[in-house]
Design a protein that fits this description.
Keywords: Membrane, Transmembrane, Transmembrane helix. The chain folds into two domains: about 110 residues, no CATH class; about 70 residues. It is elongated. The mean pLDDT is about 85. The protein is an all-alpha fold.
Length: about 200
């Protein structure tokens, strides 16, 4: 009897193990489905397909111009987006331009986000310093800025003494900055109220 009991016990244990394995596979499959559902919620399939074909086209462009991968990917995305709209128009009367633009921006925005951020930062910095030069608040800071811009211009003029033509743009930029600082000094001198300086601010 004990042998028969052990036999059925083994069968029962095997059945339990099989059920456990099936449950584990089922749980893994459900987790797998949840992952891809979440993935395609964050990354629509249109974006994924556009990215895949863009990478394929990118490899072709990189073989021609390997030093411009970012520009190559941008051209690939834009070209495929144009083809997408064209073929969509052939097979459908209504074209969802918003979906195409969204898919393109989904790829292009992260690609150019750093460069765009740097451009915005540089643009804001340029406006800040231009305003600080043209409309200074204190006489001392205006003189200090004028001195810095003057020495910067003279330093570059000496540095590029033998290469004036090649560096004309850089020298003109420094000259513009110096001109802005001079305008700032002039604006302080032309104002009717007393010109503030560092000492008067501290007192």
């Amino acid at each position: 009897m004990s042998a028969i009991t052990d036999f059925f016990q083994k069968i029962q244990n095997q059945i339990i193990e099989i059920q456990t394995t099936i449950n584990q596979i089922k749980t893994s499959w459900e987790n797998f489905q949840k992952f891809w559902d979440l993935f395609f919620t964050l990354v629509p399939w249109e974006v994924l397909l556009l990215l895949i074909f863009s990478v394929i086209l990118l490899s072709i462009f990189n073989s021609v111009s390997p030093k411009t991968p970012k520009a190559n990917l941008t051209v690939s995305v834009l070209l495929l987006s144009a083809l997408w709209i064209y073929f969509w128009g052939l097979f459908s009367q209504e074209i969802s331009y918003g979906k195409v633009i969204f898919a393109s921006l989904y790829i292009l925005f992260p690609l150019h986000a750093i460069g765009l951020g740097q451009w915005v930062y540089g643009w804001g910095k340029q406006i800040y310093w231009k305003k600080r030069r043209i409309a200074p608040v204190l006489w001392d800071s205006a003189l200090h800025q004028l001195s810095l811009d003057y020495h910067q211009l003279v330093g570059k003029a000496h540095l590029y003494h033998d290469k004036i033509q090649e560096n004309r743009g850089s020298l003109l930029e420094e000259l513009d900055r110096l001109d802005q600082s001079i305008k700032g000094i002039r604006s302080l001198l032309l104002q009717e109220k007393p010109i503030p300086n560092k000492n008067s601010e501290e007192s």
